[in-house]
Amino acid sequence: MGEAERGEAAPRKQVTFHCSQQHQSVLAFAREAVVPESWDCPKCGLPASMDELNPPPAPRIEPYKTHLAYVKERRSDTEAEDILQEAIQLLRSRRKSGEIIF
Ligand SMILES: [Zn+2]
Question: What is the whole-number distance in angstroms between the Cα of residue 53 and the centre of ligand 1?
Fold first, then answer.
């Protein structure tokens, strides 16, 4: 895939894609280019879309968990929930400030 035109003068539009890891990727397209519905996130490689609230689901890359592993993981639900909420808050506050999330 070669880029025929690399001129800075070409009109561009910026499109933000969101993956299920909550990465935001701003991509520049030629104004007349058709923006694809999905794009591989440059940060993690997962599929990303323009719909921030409904990014494409991540393909299953985690190894299958045994029932026992699942139970062990859930032994402290409230603690896990707290950690999750904290992480979500952190992501949200970072996103507001425009910081790139890795
Ligand atoms: Zn990503």
Answer: 14
State the distance from the centre of ligand 1 to the C-alpha of 8, rounded, in angstroms.
Answer: 27
Ligand 1 centroid to residue 17 C-alpha, Å: 9
Q: What is the DSSP letter of 83?
A: H
pLDDT values of the chain reduced to their tens digit, one per residue, 102 residues: 555 555 566 789 999 999 999 999 999 999 999 999 999 999 999 999 999 999 998 877 566 677 777 777 766 677 778 888 888 888 888 776 666 655
- The residues near 89 (Cβ < 8 Å, ≥ 6 apart) are none
Q: For residues 42 and 25, what is the distance between their CA atoms, to the nearest angstrom?
A: 7
Residue type, 101: I
19 assigned to a ligand binding site: yes
